[in-house]
Amino acid sequence: MTDVITATGLSRAYGRGPLAVDGLDFSIRRGEIFALLGPNGAGKTTTIRLIAGLIDPTDGRVLVNGIPTTDRSHLQEIHDAVGVLPEVPGHYESLSAYRNLRFHGRLHGLSDGQIHDRARELLGSFDLWERRDERVATFSKGMKQKVALVRAMLHAPSCLVLDEPISGLDPQAAKTVRDFLIEQRRQGTTIVLSTHNLDDADRLSDRVAVIQTRLLAVDTPSALKGRLFQRSVAVRLQNGNPAVLEVARRLPFVLHASWEEPRLQVRLDHPDEDMPAVIEALVRDGYRIQYVEPVSHSLEDAYLRLIQERGALATDGGP
Fold first, then answer.
1. Which of 75, 141, 205, 266 lies at a 20 to 30 A Cα distance from 16?
2. Would the pTM count as exceeding 0.85?
3. Which of 299, 303, 309, 247 is nearest to 278 (CA)?
4. What is the CATH number of domain 3-219?
């Protein structure tokens, strides 16, 4: 699969302050949804701006379709390839939705006929075509977000770069936006998004990057969860109590044990080999086992563990 975006040694500082992002290396493939995850101040918005060519890196570079975003001779080509949704949409609220789109389309060299056709198609997908002549100031937050997405897609870019596209939306509006993004991916559009909503990232993304100034991990959501939690096993006990932790901790191959009634959870290096010995020790001490199962974890669980275990090694980020 072809890489649409490649970041190499990507760093950015603001003035004399610390680095907002430090030495990021990643690539984003054509037609995938790639989510940027991280706590506040981790550098997600800075990374979005760097990818979109809105700011220049202090060090390193970003390539969009093989072109450096700092190459001023190809700036229009980069802007035509990328559609941007900033965290704050920045509409001209005294103008109608359609006039906002017409202004944006003309900046990209679209004819009025092209603008009309694209606006009708895209606004129609959000049931907003009939409201195109209403002032944006009268729209709800969800409607404004949809107009901003239409604006980002108006010039038919091959890549969408979205900063918190679903933040603050009601459930119905959020589902509409999610469905829209999935459809754009199906049509081959590459989508880069930052989000604090880990359920959305898990549901939408082909791959995620966890950053905290530096890059902590890049992987598919399922692989990231598996890598961090594949060795955890839960044992449901009929007569369990906190004292069962002492039984588990006596076993040298148990890396970690926790108790949450009625389950003992253990983390093992080699579950298939070591779990029979755990069961034997529990039975020997009088515990009655109801069942044993692998522990399933969410992307949020994996993210929090990654931030806890590796984030301490990263420098605190900027904007």
1. 75
2. no
3. 247
4. 3.40.50.300
